[in-house]
Amino acid sequence: TYIFGIETSCDETAAAIVKNGTEIVANVVSSQIESHKRFGGVVPEIASRHHVEQIIAVFQETLEQAGLTFKDMDAIAVTKGPGLVGALLIGVNAAKAIAFAHQLPLIGVHHIAGHIYANRLVKEMAFPLLSLVVSGGHTEIVYMAEHGSFKVIGETRDDAAGEAYDKVARTLHLPYPGGPHIDRLAAAGEDTYGLPRVRLEEGSYDFSFSGLKSAVINTVHNAQQRGEELVPENLAASFQASVVEVLTEKTIRAAKEYCVEQVLLAGGVAANEGLRASLEKAFSDMPATELVIPPLSLCTDNAAMIAAAGTILFEQGKKDGMDMNGHPGLDIETF
Ligand code: ATP
Ligand code: MG
Ligand code: FE
Asked: Quick one: pLDDT at residue 249?
């Protein structure tokens, strides 16, 4: 089967073709980062305009890369949520138009299910499994007993990990998106600032990053007031050490409790070198559980992951109608 995937939930306009749910035939991402940089974050109205301007060219490039046409496709898969509603609607309506014109099934995909299924483009899934999802808007541990089944066993109660990275980066006057910049600085620094590790109640798989973010901001303000020099590398390393330590600890504990075959890393923050290294080290002591980490290009937003997740829904007969809408707050357990 050939599934054509479309992703426009935030600030990347993306399309891809995936064969049999596991093989990337074409993968095109048009990023808008440059347009949002001067505002320090994604401006929804600008994002929607960019999607409209880019989407046809992105589709054409995807078909060209693959040497295929829409007639060769078995279905159109598109992110229907969560995300910015105006951005989602561009992809959803483009998907409907193509599905109608070529009489193809239409499949609405949950964006985070997509991030998780990016892993299937690397390694066949083995169940039960857990996925640590760390992205710009989400931080959660998701349990999967089988394909297409998602249960959230823990999630952030305030900021997402990526959001905390971006806000800390802003405090240090680094460009948007800040995650990769903090990651790079952290590699050159040491964990010297004694920042908190927020673990919440014993046994909980939930997360909280807003206190840590505030601790970084307070550290910067206090240094400014006292006229002290900050060492940005060390502050970045201290922040990253706290995030990575808590994410690793909870993931390992969950993997043991749920006796899973695999742990999959997913979402933009999965690109983080510190997190990748920490999980690899922790799981090297657990040979019964396989750790899967996608390449950087499949961690951040793309449409290959949407086509991969869409393939499973297609095989399960889970189609959407022409009345499909964009859902900014779509729930992964029931979508
Ligand atoms: P969501 O998937 O929750 O809807 P999103 O699609 O905006 O949100 P992604 O594109 O998955 O999020 O990820 C973007 C986030 O990943 C940003 O917050 C960015 O700073 C972060 N990020 C990217 N690379 C790194 C890195 N190397 N270290 C830490 N964070 C990173
Ligand atoms: Mg993005
Ligand atoms: Fe995302």
From this structure: 98
* Ligand 2 centroid – CA 300 distance (Å): 7
Whether ligand 1 lies within 6 angstroms of the CB of 10 is answered as: yes
Task: Take residue 167 and report the two structure tokens written for it.
Answer: 């806000």
Q: What whole-number distance in Å separates Cα of residue 187 and Cα of residue 139?
A: 23
Distance in Å, CA 267 to ligand 2 centroid: 10
Q: Where are the beta strands (DSSP E) in the chain?
A: 2-7, 12-19, 23-31, 75-81, 106-110, 129-134, 139-144, 151-155, 262-266, 290-292
What count of other Cβ atoms lies within 10 Å of the Cβ of residue 286?
Answer: 13
Residue ID of nearest Cα to ligand 1 atom 5: 136
ipTM, interface predicted TM-score of the complex: 0.97
pLDDT digits 0-9 by tens, 240-286: 999 999 999 999 999 999 999 999 999 999 999 999 999 999 999 99
- Pick from 268, 262, 250: nearest CA to 289: 262
CA-to-CA dists, residue 36 to 175, 177, 184, 240, 270, angstroms: 10, 9, 21, 24, 22
Q: Are 28 and 61 in contact (CB under 8 A)?
A: yes
User: What pLDDT score does 296 carry?
Assistant: 94
Contacts of 105 (CB under 8 A, 6+ apart): 74, 75, 76, 99, 314, 319
For ligand 1, atom 29, which residue shows the shortest CA distance? 179
Atom 30 in ligand 1: residue holding the nearest Cα: 179
pLDDT at 39: 83
Q: What's the gap in Å between 243 CA and the centre of ligand 3?
A: 19
Torsion of CA 166, 168, 171, 172, to 10 degrees: -100
Global pTM? 0.96
What's the pLDDT at 211?
97
**Closest CA to ligand 1's atom 13:** 268
Q: Is 138 in the pocket of ligand 1 (CB under 6 A)?
A: yes
With a cut of 70, which residues of the chain have pLDDT below it?
none
